[in-house]
Design goal:
The protein is an alpha+beta fold. The chain has a single domain, classed as YhbY-like (Translation Initiation Factor IF3), CATH 3.30.110. 40% of the residues lie in helices and 27% in strands. It contains 3 helices and 4 strands; from the N terminus they run H-E-H-E-H-E-E. The chain has a 4-stranded mixed beta sheet with strand order 1-2-4-3, with helices on both faces. The longest helix has 14 residues. It is globular and about 30 Å long. The N and C termini lie close together (9 Å).
Length: 83
């Protein structure tokens, strides 16, 4: 799926995971991988109380650690698709 199509499809999605004060844990990485395999496209909300000052920091960690690729970072939301 190309990025343009993924962005259009992602507009109607609601975030299924939230990154909170504990940050991105190994358990969260497993859950992200599971959801991306099942759904192909997911949204993650980075809460204000997370240890990341910018959403792009969390997106970079997710991109490096998961079987998902970051399609878009908008506000405090990260859109991911399967690699």
């Amino acid at each position: 799926m190309d990025d343009k199509k993924a962005k259009i499809m992602g507009q109607g999605l609601t975030p299924t995971l939230q990154v909170g004060k504990d940050g991105i844990s190994p358990e969260m990485i497993k859950e992200i991988n599971k959801q991306v395999e099942d759904k192909k496209l997911i949204k993650i909300k980075v809460l204000r109380n997370s240890p990341y000052s910018k959403t792009a920091e969390a997106a970079e960690i997710i991109n490096e650690s998961c079987k998902a690729r970051v399609v878009e970072v908008r506000g405090r939301t990260v859109l991911l698709s399967r690699r």
